[in-house]
Design goal:
Strand content: 15-25%
Radius of gyration: 22 Å
Number of strands: 15
Largest sheet: 6 strands, antiparallel
CATH superfamily of one domain: RecF/RecN/SMC, N-terminal domain
Strand order of the largest sheet: 2-1-4-5-6-7
CATH class of one domain: Mainly Alpha
CATH architecture of one domain: Up-down Bundle
Bound molecules: adenosine-5'-diphosphate, magnesium ion
Shape: globular
Number of helices: 10
Length: 372
Amino acid sequence: MVRAMYVSDLALSDYRNYADQVVRFERGVTMLVGRNGQGKTNLVEAIAYLATFSSHRVSADAALVRSGAPGAVIRAKAVEAGRERVIELEIIAGRANRAKLNRSPVKTREILGIVRTVTFAPEDLALVKGDPAERRRFLDEIAIMRMPRYADLKSRYDKIVRQRAALLKSGRTSGLEVWDLQLASAGAEISQIRAQLVADLAPHVAEAYAALAEGAVAGVQLAPSLETTEERYGLETGAASLEQRMLTAVQKVRQRELDRGLCLVGPHRDELALSIGDLPARGYASHGESWSLALALRLASFTLLADDDPPILILDDVFAELDSRRRSRLAQMVGAAEQVFVTAAVEGDVPEELVGRTLRVDAGTVTEVSDE
Ligand SMILES: Nc1ncnc2c1ncn2[C@@H]1O[C@H](COP(=O)(O)OP(=O)(O)O)[C@@H](O)[C@H]1O
Ligand SMILES: [Mg+2]
């Protein structure tokens, strides 16, 4: 059953360049227009932040808090199948976020999964051209929206990697075995989820790319760090479980890890390998091909998530970059979304199908544009 959700109200306090702003939204398309640097991206970023607790523009939350303010608050009313929930997230730089659900304090994970978004933005080019970390983040964000408990698993794993690396750096080996076991256990769980996710995404990526690039073939494949390590050392794994294999590999690289003070095996070193035709995309694809592939990855994530329930679609400043074929592919998708946010500096760049209710953004203030 489809249980499409949308956000009907948003309140921002000390978020980016918003001091105090309340906005009502409707289903369908909302256009945010205004000159550059006024807060269009900031506003859609706040909505997207509720979906994954991460931003497509920064890795540190400090930048999300209005400069000079102690903390930011994002509050949203999410409507789903007639049910309304008010979720609130307080971001305090350098400290854990705090959450409320219907005004009562809850663990942050309890509000994950209520708002789901897929964002297209100029930064998406980094999915193809950037470091493997960009592609891991792409996968992890989808995994969180499909399965909110993945966020807990991932942060537990990241902590294990940090603490184990600190131990390796210190050169002490006592207690390392305990961390090996934990890394193998959480690492195997993450690997399994990522492998399934990539398998589910792959046909959608191929289809979207073919549609954008006149039938050309693109592929995505997970290149797990475990397999890379096994190949390098010719480890015989037989029918061992993923966890056991991870443990064997970790033990195999022990001396190198101590030499370098790094955790060398585990999903924190996975790569999502992208290819176009027979060639790897990274380093080979042209600018246009890279763009198409980045779009195909986002389109695929939207299609996959929409199988369960359509996420909110955010198209941040993308139309100026796109040719008519790509514009119409994106516009097609809009029909499947319950709610769409489109930002543009120039209204004329937005395709006809996407023109909707217009809000003007000016220096951190949002106003309705009345019909002429
Ligand atoms: N933490 C912050 N505190 C105050 N202002 C901020 C903060 N982060 C970003 N800004 C301001 O927000 C503006 C950029 O907003 P943005 O939403 O990216 O613009 P656009 O409308 O072009 O999408 C810039 O002027 C920037 O200085
Ligand atoms: Mg912008």
